Structure formats: structure tokens, C-alpha cells
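FAQ: What does the model actually see?

It sees only this:
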Amino acid sequence: MKPRPHPSTHHIQDHPFLVRIAHWLQALAIFFMIGSGWRIYNSVPIFNFRFPLWATLGGQPLQSKIAHMDPGVANALNWHFTGMWLLGASYLIFIVHGIASGHFWKHLLPLTPRLLWRDFIAAITFKLSHNLGEYNAVQRFAYWGVLFAIFMMIVTGLAIWKPVQLSWLTALCGGYPTARVLHFIFMAAICLFIVIHVALVALVPKTLVAMLFGRAAEPIHQPAPAVQNAAE
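And it is asked to produce this:
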């Protein structure tokens, strides 16, 4: 059996089984919700554009209209509600595990404006180093941001879904029209995070290995010892 890498000689990233399950369920749920949400948006757009049909979920509009007298919006709503329950359950699992295991405090804190600014400048000048299993301040900020965005997408989604039964929540969101705009903004924030997240995974592929199989490791490169002067 191959010996397990030791933290003194390797950078190691571990993802428990529950975290991996929650991660991939959230990814699947967000795929359902974004694709179906874009079809729902297209039926009553907020802004002066529509998403391409191929990027949406809900079936072919013509076939759906013949079969159900609906251009696919009803199908999209079914996809959206499926994604909503899946996202809510997986998000709750992730949050509870993160609190119970101490993951949030151990790996995503501290986060201060000074640390964020330092690592942001290093990132845009391509000087930001990355060690497997360690989160820099930019990554920490992004993870806290996407957790907040998912939470707010759920909240504003509920305000849109049940504006009468949850009138207090809709009012907190600024009313139904404002809740729709906020829902769109947080959806866009999640899409931006996905693009950045996938790009970073492409740059550090072993992070994907850890999320698939639970663990990944890479050797710690020690600086070469200085050559002593021959005269000594």
C-alpha cells in the first residue's frame, strides 16, 4: 500500500465525504436553477435582453406549447422547484458541517481588509502563491461571498414564490419587483463565482482531485541549500 503523505513534507487538501456530497449536490442544484431561472426570466424579462434558448431548461417551446399550451415556462418552474429543494438541503448540510467541524473558523478566517487588499494586489500582478489546502484572503472572501449570495438567492426566491403568504419577507426585500432584481443580481454573482472557481481549478487541478476522491497532496518544495564558499 502506498504510504500516506505527511503534512511535514506535503501540502495536503482533505474534503470529508459529507462536504463532497454537499458540494456536488449544490453544483447540480445551481445548474438546474440557473438554466430554469433563465427560461422563467425570458417569459417576463427585467432588463432589455433575453438568454439564448439553448442555455435554458424547460424543453422546446413549440413542442411544449402543442402539448401543454405553454412555451416551456411550466417545465422550467418544475426544474426550478426541484433545484430549490436540492439547493436548500445541500446548503444546510454544508453550513451545519462547516460550523460543527470548525471548517469555517480554521480555513476561512481570519479575513481582514488589509489581508484582502494584500492578496488582491498579489493576484492581479500574478504574484499570489497557492499551496494546496490553504486559502488565501481572496479565496476566503469569494467563499464567504458565494455562501451569502446563495443564502440571499434562497431568501429572495421565497419572497418571489410566495409574495402573499410570505408578505413580510417580500416587504423586507423591498417589494416584489425589487426582490426579482435582487434575485437576478445574486444569481449573477453566483455565475461570476462559478467562472472564477472553474478557472482556478483549471490552474490547480489537484483541488478537483481532492473534491472527487477526498484527498490530494503535493510535495513541499524546500529551498536549495546555499553553496558554501570553497575557501571556507
